[in-house]
Each structure stands twice: as C-alpha cells, then as structure tokens.
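Issue 218. Parser rejects a valid record. Input:
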Amino acid sequence: MIWDYLSQFWNSITAVGDYSIEFFQNIGIAVAGALGGFFDVIFHNLNDIFVFISWFFINLKNIFLSLLAPIAYFFNVLKFFFGSAFGTPPPPEATFAFSQEVLDIFGAIPNWAIFSSVLGAIIIFIIGLSGLKLLLRS
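Output the parser choked on:
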C-alpha cells in the first residue's frame, strides 16, 4: 500500500513534464543546501550570542570579585589574627631525632662526645677561615 502511494506520488510529479531524475536530484540537493545554510547561519549567530553572554558574565564576576578583594583580605587578616591570638597554640612539630639504634651505634664509639665536639669545632674553624678569606679578598 505504501509503495502504491509512493508510485502514485512519483507519477504525479513526473507527469508535470518530461524531466529527468537528475533534475529532481539537483532540486533536492539545492533544497538541502538552502536548509543547511539557513540552520548554519542561525546556529552560528546563536552561538555568537551565547559566547558574548558568557564572556560578559565572566568579566562581570571578575570585576565584582576585584572590588571585593580588599574587603575580603581585611576580614581574612582579622579572622586569622584573632584566631591565632586567642586560640590555643598549635602543637610543636616533631623535631629531627635519631632513633635509639643509631644512638647506640654512636655511643659504642669510645670518646664520641669529645670526637663530635672536635669535629664541630674544625668545621666552624674552616667556615670562619673561608669567610675571612672572602672578606679580605674584597
């Protein structure tokens, strides 16, 4: 039944004149191109409008945040000042300490306390001489 309807439709179109199939194909291509160009222009213009609106509101937000930045800075300073001034102090961070195994190894060295003191004094002496040399050079 559908094919009968389509064949009648086709016969009524071709009965208008003696036109080739290529003629109707070209008309279909022209209509499709016109519709595609029409929607392309509409979608392009709508996209431009939405891009402009997005740009406008992003810049409006940036201007608003820039105007509020000094006020936010002032209140943040006050908040952290009063929070640190009247709050409990934070616990001290862990200091670097050697494990007991390492301390036992150094404790096994005879006269380690004297040796480490002499080693520290030598390092301080070398640093002092290099600093003195740099001062005398200039």
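Fixed in the parser; the record now loads. The helical segments are 2-14, 21-86, 100-108, 112-137.
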